[in-house]
Automatic annotation (TrEMBL):
MF terms (GO), sorted A to Z: DNA-binding transcription factor activity; transcription cis-regulatory region binding
Annotated InterPro entries: Homeodomain-like_sf, HTH-type_TetR-like_transc_reg, HTH_TetR, Tet_transcr_reg_TetR-rel_C_sf, Tscrpt_reg_YbiH_C
Domain HTH tetR-type: 8-68
Lineage top rank: taxon: Bacteria
Organism of this sequence: Desulfobacter hydrogenophilus
UniProt entry keywords in alphabetical sequence: DNA-binding
Keyword Nucleotide-binding attributed: no
Name of the protein in its database record: DUF1956 domain-containing protein
DNA-binding region(s) from the entry: 31-50
Alphabetized Pfam families for the sequence: CecR_C, TetR_N
């Protein structure tokens, strides 16, 4: 029987192990035995603390969303609470767009945590489960809404649909450096995203963002 006094350590180890196992094998192929072995805990801890594999997977998704919100939550709140008017508002929108893109570039492409999370997020994009609602509502939609707001503010064009298309394009430019990392590293003969290489990535994406928002839609 699992002892409660070990709950924080046991739960943390299971959560950490589950992120890797679900990311590498997917929900269907991952087994509770694999997760327990990776976390070096008794397999009985999974139903005891999480109710089973499904409950553990949902906890993993909640954890990923919470961590991403910690990275960008303050910026998202600032964007939501700001009214962008006149030239100073347009400049502020540009600065906030650059800030939020830089934050995601360093988290998604430049951090080990981003690498681990992205495996699960990519699987959910290809084979969405009921947990995808948490991902979309928890951070994807807020980020898309924020980028759309900034795009309309910087371009001076109030077209939510076009702005959302452009926001998705910008988000895709960030994500490609994680999901296509091996191709990019080999194609550009990179080390694997050193600080200097991340700066190159940042400069390209931010430059594209400014170009996209300053070019009228046809």
């Amino acid at each position: 029987m699992v002892k409660k006094k070990n709950a924080p350590d046991t739960k943390d180890r299971l959560l950490d192990a589950a992120i890797d196992v679900f990311g590498r094998h997917g929900f269907d192929s991952a087994t509770t035995r694999m997760i327990a072995k990776a976390g070096n805990v008794n397999i009985a801890a999974i139903p005891y603390y999480f109710g089973g594999k499904g409950g553990l997977y949902q906890t993993v998704i909640d954890h990923i969303v919470d961590q991403i919100k910690k990275e960008a939550g303050e910026l998202l709140e600032q964007i939501d609470e700001t009214t962008f008017t006149n030239d100073s508002g347009r400049q502020q929108a540009r600065e906030l767009m650059q800030a939020i893109l830089e934050r995601f570039i360093h988290f998604i492409a430049g951090s080990e945590q981003g690498q681990r999370f992205s495996r699960i997020l990519l699987r959910e994009q290809m084979f969405p489960s009921s947990a995808y609602d948490t991902i979309f509502e928890g951070f994807l939609k807020p980020v898309l809404d924020a980028l759309s707001t900034l795009i309309m503010a910087t371009s001076g064009k109030s077209d939510p649909r076009q702005a959302t298309f452009k926001a998705m394009t910008l988000m895709g430019q960030v994500l490609i450096f994680r999901v296509a990392r091996e191709t990019i590293v080999r194609g550009l003969d990179l080390e694997g995203y050193s600080p200097e290489e991340l700066e190159e990535i940042r400069a390209v994406i931010v430059g594209n963002a400014l170009a996209i928002t300053s070019t009228p839609s046809q």
